[in-house]
Automatic annotation (TrEMBL):
It holds the Pfam family TspO_MBR. The chain crosses the membrane at residues 16-35, 120-137, 149-172. This is TspO/MBR-related protein. It comes from the Eukaryota. Signal peptide: none annotated. Belongs to the TspO/BZRP family. It is a multi-pass membrane protein. Keywords: Membrane, Transmembrane, Transmembrane helix. InterPro entries: TspO/MBR-related_sf, TspO_MBR. Its main location: membrane. It is found in: Membrane. The keyword tRNA-binding does not apply. It comes from Papiliotrema laurentii (Cryptococcus laurentii).
C-alpha cells in the first residue's frame, strides 16, 4: 500500500494535470520572489559570480517544472503497468520522492525570499538536490516509453547551479547586518 493518497496518482495520470500542477504551484511561489527580488534586502546583497539576470529564472523554472511534471506522469504510467511487486514498489517510491522534492522545492522561495533566511534555504536546497538525485535514480530504472532521466537531468544540473548561487549569497553576505 502506497503512503501517497490516491489523488496524487490521479493528478500524475493526467499529463495536463501532471505538468500543470508544478508549473502552477511554482508560479504561485514565484510571486514571493518577484516582490522580494526588488527589495532593498536583496538588491543590496553582493551576488556570487555568474549570477544571471533575474528575468532568466521564470522561464527556466517553468520549463523545469514542466519536465519534472511529465516525469511524474511517466512514473505513474509505469506504476499502473507494473506486473511485479518490485516494479510497483519502485514506481511508488519514485512518485513519493517526486512529491517530497516538489514540497522541498516550493519551500525554498518562502525561506530565502519570504523569511530572508539564506542559511536555512541553503540547507533546504541541499536536501532538495539530494532528494531529486535519489528520485532521478529511482525513476531511471522504471519501464517507461521515454527515459525520465532526459526530463530530470536539466533539473539536476540547475539545482547544482542554484545551490552554488544560494551558497554564494550566504558566503558573500555573511557579515552583513540587516
Amino acid at each position: 500500500m502506497s503512503p501517497l493518497p490516491e489523488i496524487f496518482f490521479d493528478i500524475a495520470r493526467n499529463p495536463i494535470f501532471a505538468v500543470g500542477l508544478p508549473i502552477g504551484l511554482g508560479a504561485a511561489s514565484g510571486f514571493i520572489t518577484g516582490q522580494t527580488s526588488r527589495s532593498n534586502w536583496f538588491t543590496t546583497m553582493s551576488p556570487p559570480p555568474g549570477n544571471p539576470p533575474k528575468e532568466v529564472f521564470g522561464p527556466v523554472w517553468t520549463v523545469l517544472y514542466g519536465l519534472m511534471g511529465y516525469a511524474s506522469h511517466l512514473t505513474v504510467r509505469s506504476f499502473d503497468a507494473a506486473i511485479t511487486p518490485q516494479a510497483t514498489a519502485q514506481a511508488d517510491q519514485a512518485l513519493t520522492l517526486y512529491y517530497a522534492q516538489l514540497g522541498l522545492n516550493l519551500l525554498w522561495t518562502p525561506l530565502f525570499f519570504g523569511a530572508k533566511q539564506k542559511e536555512i534555504a541553503l540547507g533546504n536546497i541541499l536536501a532538495l538536490t539530494g532528494t531529486v538525485l535519489a528520485m532521478t535514480v529511482k525513476m531511471h530504472g522504471l519501464n517507461t516509453p521515454f527515459s525520465t532521466t532526459w526530463f530530470l537531468a536539466p533539473y539536476c544540473a540547475w539545482l547544482g547551479y542554484a545551490s552554488y548561487l544560494n551558497a554564494g549569497y550566504v558566503f558573500l553576505n555573511r557579515d552583513r547586518k540587516y
